[in-house]
């Protein structure tokens, strides 16, 4: 993937019209944890899988899911500090908008602002692209629920279901097979846990954790990160189902 002199900074296009620094940032995302987001009939579910890198680490400190404001939450992957930086930028944008206009920022405006921020990091020689993808769930009184994904290039689109990371292809296929828009959030949670465990099949020898959050009618469309005990219970049931399926196939 060498850019032969065009990959030292992202302020110049290569003769083929490529920005290699963006491609390197996307590579950091592709080899990292799988993150997913799906819209259900009554809310949105965000989730991620992650490898526990140190047995001595306190559970829950390696967070990937965050609340931006009461009615918005996000999940990040890739270089987690980059994702956290983008998340803090989202919090600043939400706070400034509310101070200036007196209402909570609409989800599409917040996502577009984050996309523009990510894109600005691809045009200056003194900066580098964010090595992280962010999936954000929002709710506002103008457009209702929204699910957005901001990529290292600054691309930002709204989705019914999306995924990023090392298991994104498997996750996308599973999301497309299940019509999540016809199921409730509570029905979707075990399915998302199963998708996340399947997407990290190649890393199953290592200790793993999953994180999940919801925003639904039941929570008053407030972003809620699910507690560790409940998520671990879902993960154990999903792992048992996957094992039974494999035994049936054998």
Describe this structure in words.
The structure is a single chain. The chain is an alpha+beta fold and 250 residues long. The chain has one domain (21-240): Glutamine Phosphoribosylpyrophosphate, subunit 1, domain 1 (4-Layer Sandwich), CATH 3.60.20.10. Helices cover 38% and strands 22% of the residues. It contains six helices and ten strands. The chain has helices at residues 20-30, 80-101, 107-120, 168-177, 185-199, 228-249, and strands at 35-39, 43-51, 65-69, 72-76, 134-140, 144-150, 156-158, 161-164, 208-216, 224-225. The strands form two sheets. It has a five-stranded antiparallel β-sheet, covered by helices on one side. A five-stranded antiparallel β-sheet has the order 3-4-5-6-7. α2 (80-101) crosses α3 (107-120). The termini are far apart. The mean pLDDT is 89.
CATH domain topology: Glutamine Phosphoribosylpyrophosphate, subunit 1, domain 1
Query: First CA to last CA: what distance?
Result: 40 Å
Q: If helices are DSSP runs of H or I spanning 4 or more residues, what is the number of helices?
A: 6
Mean pLDDT: 89
Overall 3D form: globular
- Number of domain units: 1
List segments where confidence is low: pLDDT < 50 over at least 5 consecutive residues: none
Rg, nearest Å = 18 Å
- Structural class, judged by helices and strands? alpha+beta
Main location: cytoplasm
Subcellular location: Cytoplasm; Nucleus
Organism: Halteria grandinella
Family: Belongs to the peptidase T1A family.
């Amino acid at each position: 993937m060498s850019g032969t002199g065009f990959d030292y900074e992202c302020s110049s296009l290569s003769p083929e019209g490529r920005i290699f620094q963006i491609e390197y940032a996307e590579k950091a995302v592709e080899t990292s944890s799988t993150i997913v987001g799906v819209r259900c009939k009554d809310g949105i579910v965000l989730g991620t899988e992650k490898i526990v890198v140190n047995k001595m680490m306190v559970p829950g400190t390696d967070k990937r899911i965050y609340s931006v404001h009461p009615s918005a939450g996000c999940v990040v992957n890739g270089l987690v500090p980059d994702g956290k930086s983008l998340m803090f930028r989202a919090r600043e944008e939400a706070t400034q908008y509310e101070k200036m206009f007196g209402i909570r920022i609409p989800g599409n405006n917040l996502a577009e602002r984050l996309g523009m921020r990510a894109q600005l990091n691809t045009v200056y020689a003194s900066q580098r692209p964010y090595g992280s993808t962010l999936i954000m769930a929002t709710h506002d009184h103008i457009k209702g629920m929204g699910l957005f994904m901001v990529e290292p290039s600054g691309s930002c689109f709204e989705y019914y279901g999306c995924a990023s990371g090392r298991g994104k292809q498997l996750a996308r296929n599973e999301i497309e097979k299940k019509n999540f828009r016809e199921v409730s959030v509570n029905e979707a949670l075990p399915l998302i846990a199963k998708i996340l465990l399947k997407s990290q099949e190649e890393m199953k020898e290592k200790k793993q954790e999953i994180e999940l959050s919801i925003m639904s009618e039941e929570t008053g469309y407030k972003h809620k990160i699910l507690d560790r005990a409940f998520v671990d219970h879902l993960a154990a049931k999903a792992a048992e189902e996957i094992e039974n399926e494999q035994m049936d196939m054998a």
